[in-house]
Amino acid sequence: MYRDSGPECNRYHTDPWIRLARVSATDEPMRVRDTCNVWVIRRGRDAICIDFGRGAVLDQLDELGIDRITDVLVTHYHRDGVQGLARAAEAGIRIWVPPVEQDLFTHAGELWDSRRVENDYDLLQERFSLLESVEIAGVVSEYRTRDYGGVELFALPTPGHTPGSVTYIADIDGRRIAFTGDLIYGQGQVWSLAATQWSYTGIEGQAAAILSFGVLARHAPDLLLPAHGDPIEEPTAALAETGHRLGELMQLRRIEETPWDLERWLDDPWQVLSPHVLRNRTSLATSYALLSDTGAALLIDWGYDLWTGYPSGGARSTCRPRLESIEALHRNHGVERVDAVLTTHFHDDHVAGTSLLREVHGAQIWSPENVAPILEDPTLYDLPCLWFDPIAVDRVLPFGEPIAWHEHELTLHPLPGHTRYAAAIEFHVDGLRVLATGDQQSREENGRSILNYQYRNRFSTDDFVHSAELYARLRPDLLLTGHWGAHELNEVQLAQLIEDGRRVAELHRELLPFGDPEGFPARFTPYRVTVAAGTAVELSVEVHNPFDRAETARVSIVLPAGWSSEPALQELALEPRAEARAAFRIVPAGPPGRLPIAADLIVGDVHLGAQAEALVTVT
Questions:
Q1: How far is the C-alpha of 72 from the C-alpha of 32, rounded, in Å?
Q2: 425, β-bridge pairs
Q3: pTM, entire model
């Protein structure tokens, strides 16, 4: 275990805490000056802390009139605010962390092992994190008020200093107090600008901070208590001035001449496409809202609301779901409730916020029949862009069957192309035939659509032929796309999609010896599995015959030394281009850790080699 050492270890400021005026004796927030401000809220002889520094507060309990600290709530993962958490855990204190940042606390060792240092363009300050893992009680409940050690606190996402930062808001003795972490230092000042540069040449954190200033201001705090700096008695002025300065600095770094209208993002995030269809102009991927005259809304996809441009595909700590635009549905468009969110496909930028939406607003999660299994158990699949956690699906929607939702009717259609596991969502509203197509094709400025296939998503040769045929049959007036807005589909554009789809298929058949763009004729299910050493686990290998003739496939498993497979070899009779599964019982040996295994494949007289791998974590 790491501990602070050196001659300064046990030295404190002569005034280690500051008592704030106009609060009651039982609720009084106190500041312990440590490597950051540690804010202490008492309840009788117990107390909770906001952030923890080196843990100096534990040496000050008598002076503070406290018997014990019951809970620590962390605003963000930076080491100066959390380096003493091991002391908290030893003392039996419950530790609560922001959901987005949980891995930086619970898997610190693994993250240090995997961090890249050569040719590194990642500027996000994740290295300024714990050196060793610490056990946490759980994650805080964002957008909700919860009791922590007898203190009710509202956890508000406020990215900026880090993507996952949280501000805690409490109403204490008639004043609304916000514990802001390092979102703001003082009027017109932030603690760090370097922390707001999340990517090389990026300004994502600065834009996120400006939005967070606006979000926090809407909660009308009377007092801001930062992790560094003094109490801020004029929150409105401080947030406004800091946002103005950051905005000016941000604009000087941008190539585009048109400034971001971040104020509009908060005030009016939804573009009206028709009286009953809205587009979220702030989200990645683009979310849409279908409105009912009953006051309900049905959302199509919900990934990253108020997305400011930080890179997708990063660690959990960079993937920040938000819900700010839901309030604008209520405020600006008369929406009384969100009934459900319907996903077009499984990629994180389309589903990341769905569970949070259900937890906070009670919305159900609906998903097509070919997407729901991936959301509910992503470890089964070797696919890109999977969300970190399983997402429970409340309603699985079949293809081809009309689904009634209030006065509207929706029909789902298979839409392979961008990924094998996707759906087009058809509905008629306001005199328009509308089709939500996810990420199937892009829309360029010249009006041309580019077929958006990614091979690892399990693209097949004729996918875009089939999607063009679907468009020709349905004749939608309006396409709702995942990243290129909403646009009409005219005859010229439809003809271009048909032509391009056919030519893409022809070229794949001409270029590839087997005509199979996926490239791997074998796959493991599950792809990831955790098992104790010596305990058997069942895995299957999906085998695809790449030939236009019937063949016999032979599958064997390539294992680390000391592991065993039953059977050692499986034979499968395959029709032309057909698929089948071979089941194996694997018994792993130690030592603990994640190890790959592979499936060696022979089809006919062609030895294709160790085509598929699976990842087995031995405990």
A1: 14
A2: 412, 436
A3: 0.93
